[in-house]
Design a protein that fits this description.
- It is built from eleven helices and no strands.
- By secondary structure, it is an all-alpha fold.
- The longest helix is centred in the middle third of the chain and has 25 residues.
- The chain is globular and about 60 Å long.
- The chain binds zinc ion (ZN).
- The site of zinc ion has 5 residues, from loops.
């Protein structure tokens, strides 16, 4: 009897965990919200493509499974604390404290082994303490600028989100990442040249107003 009661409690904790994680589907990425992107992606959208970037890595020296797990976990705390931006006037220390507390709350719902694994993954990413966590950080930035590029394409506003690209200068090192960046820059370069007329008559003013604001996405601040 006692065992089945315990099992039921474990089951409802897992359901509670899944529901909390589900909230990530409804947490919009702050950087896009502040720039008035229509229907901005959610935090889980962002983590999904980072997991795909991890899955498709070709470097045999990298522990791919570890990268996938890091990608899936790195922004998990945002289901409770939201996507905190520098403009929210919350210090880095305070942000880390809130996210740490949220991670404890979340992983407390899990059985011991899983709890340690998931909390450990989050901590590894936060402290950037492994080659995999440093690669996944590059995926984090790559995913952001790829998304910025797609929003510019969807909106027909080339260059409007340029500051996101600028914020990543000098931060990419892995050959696989550099290759994707080079393809992206090539496509973006030709796209921007092609639509130069649109840019000059339509959005240059808007672009300059927007880019005078500080970067607000937490994903670009470190
Ligand atoms: Zn992220």
């Amino acid at each position: 009897m006692a065992a089945s009661v315990q099992a039921a409690a474990g089951g409802s904790n897992m359901l509670r965990f899944m529901k909390l994680i589900g909230q990530l589907k409804r947490v919009p990425r702050t950087g896009w919200v502040y720039r008035n992107v229509k229907k901005p992606e959610s935090v889980s959208d962002h983590m999904y493509r980072m997991a795909m970037m991890s899955l498709t890595i070709t470097d045999p020296t990298v522990d791919k499974d570890r990268c996938i797990k890091l990608a899936l976990v790195h922004d998990m705390a945002e289901c409770i604390v939201g996507d905190i931006a520098p403009s929210d006037n919350i210090s880095k220390t305070e942000k880390h404290k809130r996210e740490e507390e949220a991670m404890r709350q979340l992983t407390d719902l899990l059985p011991e082994g899983l709890k340690q694994e998931i909390y450990g993954m989050w901590e590894e990413y936060e402290t950037q303490s492994s080659p995999e966590s440093r690669l996944v950080k590059q995926f984090d930035l790559l995913e952001m600028i790829l998304q910025a590029h797609e929003y510019e394409e969807l909106e027909g506003t080339p260059g409007r989100l340029q500051e996101f690209f600028d914020s990543t200068d000098g931060r990419f090192h892995h050959p696989d990442v550099l290759q994707l960046i080079s393809s992206l820059n090539e496509e973006r370069g030709s796209h921007m040249t092609k639509t130069d007329d649109t840019k000059n008559c339509g959005n240059s003013q808007e672009a300059s107003v927007v880019s005078s604001r500080p970067l607000e996405s937490s994903h670009t601040s470190s």
